[in-house]
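Schema walkthrough. Field components (list of strings):
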Amino acid sequence: MTTMHDVAAHAKVSAKTVSRVFNDDPHVAPATRERILAAMKQLNYVPNTLAQNFRTGRAPVIGVAVPDIADPFFSSIARAVEEIAAEQNMSVSVTSLGNDPSREEPVLESLLRFQLSGLIVAPISENQAYLSRWTDHTPVVFVDRAPTKLAVDSFVEDDLGGAHAATTHLIRHGHTRIAFIGDTLSIPTTANRLEGYKSALADAGLPYRDDLVVFGARTVEGARQAVATLIGRQLEPTAVFSSDARCSMSLIPALQEAHQSNLALVGFGDFPMANALRPAITVVDQDPANLGRLAITRILDRIANPTKRYRRRTILPVGLVERASCLVPWDSPVTEPANGDLASDDDTFSPLQAAS
Amino acid sequence: MTTMHDVAAHAKVSAKTVSRVFNDDPHVAPATRERILAAMKQLNYVPNTLAQNFRTGRAPVIGVAVPDIADPFFSSIARAVEEIAAEQNMSVSVTSLGNDPSREEPVLESLLRFQLSGLIVAPISENQAYLSRWTDHTPVVFVDRAPTKLAVDSFVEDDLGGAHAATTHLIRHGHTRIAFIGDTLSIPTTANRLEGYKSALADAGLPYRDDLVVFGARTVEGARQAVATLIGRQLEPTAVFSSDARCSMSLIPALQEAHQSNLALVGFGDFPMANALRPAITVVDQDPANLGRLAITRILDRIANPTKRYRRRTILPVGLVERASCLVPWDSPVTEPANGDLASDDDTFSPLQAAS
DNA sequence: GGATAGCATGACACCGGTGCCATTCGAGCG
DNA sequence: CGCTCGAATGGCACCGGTGTCATGCTATCC
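Field assembly_structure (string):
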């Protein structure tokens, strides 16, 4: 790798003058500039970002740590962050935290040692106090999941309100036995959504039955077991509220396998093909890209205005995207859906329509 | 940020000794080690990775540049890379290249200036010659799309063979008018898949009709237009081969809207919920995670064995995952599907079954 | 003509670790 | 007792840019 000193020697100037040419410093004679530019081209000079960052003490890099970058919800967040970071000539370093909460701390620590310009986290652990030693120097923003034992910015969805709305929606469609299916209560979003579900039941005067609440449905296998458990219950549920998109995506194949075509379904979080499934899946829409945009914007603001004060916790409203899976039986709507998403729902892709 | 010198001063030793403690150098007296460890803890010392990397001249970072990290295909690649990189204490810097080929060069250059340990690229431009100045120093591996005018490692799927198999599969099911729907020929995979499609037609003695080949179906809107164009044709197609997962995901809603429930469909590339749709979508499966694993493994091998020679181009076989969308009419299979994926295909989630 | 301002350029330190070599000191041994 | 050897530790340069200040030179003006 050729360095600035090589270029300087070749152009018979000092390294500093080469640096000036690079940084468009006007105090360089045109002839000198030309000579240096020629030397740079000839030697194929490329500045070493590592050296620059080292001197600055900061890397123009935004860290993004999420449970799983292959999950469409989190990859949408990352994509939005990237887009805005790129405008500021910043790059993005993505890390998947995985499933093991004890790995979170070492992973984030090693990320932060890069002297990141900022960090965006959707945590998997239940306590992020260990981050406090960094938060004075590095803007940290939580997304999707609020921090525990740590005072930093966060942008989360209205889990409680969304779950309440989804559950209420099912109740309005006449359901009284509604199951709650999720991954694990250790994820704060799931805990909040369970609360929303409970409060909706309470508001409607329906009993809360904990035999209708099942966890572990993150994988198709887990969802299968959850479905099997529910089917075995006395007074089987007639509807299911799925606590997150990942669960919904596991749950749907599991329901199909178990011939549970009579169960109504509302999921928290939209997901690919949700509107192409038959019935199209009614979901609480979260807009992860917006979450990402808000997070990176806050980081950039914090960098620009280190002393300014911001509201730490932001809870974003979520909307119900009404499709068809909330109706049972699905071909005889209880209420006329308001959402345009439903407009094409009779345009079914199913061969069975043609066959019947 | 407290530095090593702060710790050294506090423990009344030299910076070098602090460095030794950090690097588990055995030549440190136990008492000294204790004193230094105490000082480090008290001052909250964290090593500055930027300085370490600068000295090394290399960042323990693998760059991953793909068209769109929010695309499940590419996010699966990134996830697999990450997983293996993490085992080597390397982090991953992800960049989406977007749609503008002219942005590729500046984006990759700025990534490479970080003195990456390696770079994994799925390019969007048609010429990557500009990377040649880097390839001597930094291992570069292409995935999904082979490099043009550049001699580096690549791992791509058998686009030609896969498209040939998919098209042949449709022909075996009795289709003679098969449309090809893709994004753009400037993506080499699409060009190869079109060749595979053509050769399958030729092998079957079917005519190639370029009025059945339509591009621009990357978005739902584009897919709508593609469908509209095809429907207008004399001798409409009875089947469609979709050139990539993204197109399939756009095409399916478009077909639903256009009431094209009689069209058979095979897509190149699996995608979320493909097996939960009704009919479940028959696809050529690509295994993006494997692509990612192979790429990062090759980079690590290259780092460990700089002189060793490898076969540059690897073409991975692809398999046909037979579901139901290739059968027309779907409820009367022409042949008995071999794939287990079909086992549950009568367990339909569709309300119409219940209704009929 | 001399003082002065302004521009082009260079010298040098510094960012925070670490490789290399020197120095010091004590133990062990002939 | 003196020598050798190894262990513990320190000094210092260096990685590649860049901020700060100094220097030398020319143009300008009174």
